[in-house]
Amino acid sequence: MKWTISNSLPISFDIVRSRNVLSLKELDIARKIIIIDHNVYELYKDNIPCDSTINILTINCTEATKGLDNAQLILNFFETKNILRRTEPVIAIGGGVLLDIVGFCCSIYRRGIPYIRIPTTLLSIIDASIGIKTSINHFDRRNRLGSFYPPLMSILDTALIKTQTAREISNGVAEILKLSIVVDETLFELLENNPKVVMEDKFQGDLADQIIDIAINSMISELNSNLWEQQLQRSVDFGHSFSPIIEMKNVCDMLHGEAVILDCLLSSCISFNRNLISQDTLYRIFNLIKSYNLPTYHADFYNIDLLNKALTDTMKHRDNNQFLPIPTSIGGCIIINDLTQDELLLSTITMRQLNNKI
Amino acid sequence: MKWTISNSLPISFDIVRSRNVLSLKELDIARKIIIIDHNVYELYKDNIPCDSTINILTINCTEATKGLDNAQLILNFFETKNILRRTEPVIAIGGGVLLDIVGFCCSIYRRGIPYIRIPTTLLSIIDASIGIKTSINHFDRRNRLGSFYPPLMSILDTALIKTQTAREISNGVAEILKLSIVVDETLFELLENNPKVVMEDKFQGDLADQIIDIAINSMISELNSNLWEQQLQRSVDFGHSFSPIIEMKNVCDMLHGEAVILDCLLSSCISFNRNLISQDTLYRIFNLIKSYNLPTYHADFYNIDLLNKALTDTMKHRDNNQFLPIPTSIGGCIIINDLTQDELLLSTITMRQLNNKI
Question: Using CB atoms, which residue from B9, B146, B216 is nearest to A8?
């Protein structure tokens, strides 16, 4: 005797640009359950309506507190508010950490309640808002628990970026740089030619808008056909092979984009040592990173034992494969699975030399 | 500017019958990560192979401990064992509580790792093994956290039922009775004609096999087109409207099936008072429940305040609708959304009278 259960879950959601999103005017929801980052709330509370339909929980969330404790606070808020299963979508307002935690809580509360993402940082606008991943950190590991769970929609208001610090904006640029190096030469050149313009006006001008739009287009191209990661060989994992463990080790003083871009540089050095990219290309990558005030040096990226430990952990997530994306040109990459110890050591030396030479 | 993310997740898994499933011979997995109910392990440890490929975690799980603490133990085991993301499916062996918890842990660890369900109770063979629901209890509420997450497969070995107590077997029968009342007259008649035969040989004979097969067929017919519960009006929710809160209130002395069947009887009384079923049909239902030694009386089912509280909570899960399935015949039902206080009170009286009269 044998039975087969078989079906298909269609998912679809829009990512829209908007202005003055915190007025919540475009959201036709009778009772609004809002989970908002504490800092964002302090900055923008005067922009958020205050009436009997609004229920706000503010959360302090950073990579260091992206765990079960914050998730429990949020779940408890849902329970206290007696939230309905379908018609009271939770409104998540904050950076990637907040969107990831709230998304995770929504995915598991009553086996899933709807939610809307309102990203408030450059990084979350071009990254956490696009796919369907939710997560929390656990066992001191980044995103060890999570789910694939689409929001009802993501609403992007780039005006919110302007209250970010320069370092936080660079942090967001890092994920755009990552994409540009491995999948989008046009984006790379746009970034290469305009670091001062976009950084000085805090990503508020037409050029910044153009960069964000292209980055989102590129991200969607990479993600849309592989939303549930059935395919473990992913170009967007560039910069995410060695960095997760190192980021968690330095959780109080290294931002996500900083960890990612250091990993991108190390991975580019691996490419260079395989003669897959020229010295000129490697220099262009290095200089682009520098021009957005992102780090090109950190002692942990010269620590072979730590790099090995980090790659071994990442390999569990890639089902015991390295599946390491490395660039083959500006805008192109391959996924390798045969990195050797010698190569890795040599590439840390190349990275060190780059920092000394230029 | 607007983008749309759109895709579809196909899922498919088999439910197969097997014999001597605990030998694990049919599972071609290099390293076997097994989460097994402590009692099942004690009963069957001599049947389970013991070699270097086997990694066992035993869990004490009951409805009272189906929570985050047990989930953390399981997640910690995954982390300690450095489980791969795709090719080391977790093997869950136990009743519905264990299958639900392990399924939940597998659905959130690394955003989902594969798992295989091996149910060891009659109830989990015909219920927890069929759909794609996983869950844990939280905030003293049944299944408040969970996910929709299909297993790789479910393997049913009905020989395992024979070590269950008569009460536990009746507990499993309750969900079969439920199905028979609202969707399957043939199944009802088969149960009605054979209580002694199937109970005396602990569901081991051909007739028991036939009942189980029909129950699974019925369950699949009801679930397969609505796996993610996009549709909140579900016949299989018969018996699950008032019972969840009452079951949790009596978590140490009322079994799931017992709570469900009391709810089925109350819901049938509602039907009777609406003249949707005859007195004869109501008596048949009552007598069938009795004949499998299931309860037809519990003080909590006469407690109007508690019943109201229970229905209100269930309504949150049905997006503020009652969506109460009640029988219209043996094998037929409707979903109502307009139950009144008077009707509910009258039906508790009907239920009391039934118990006094027969």
Answer: B9
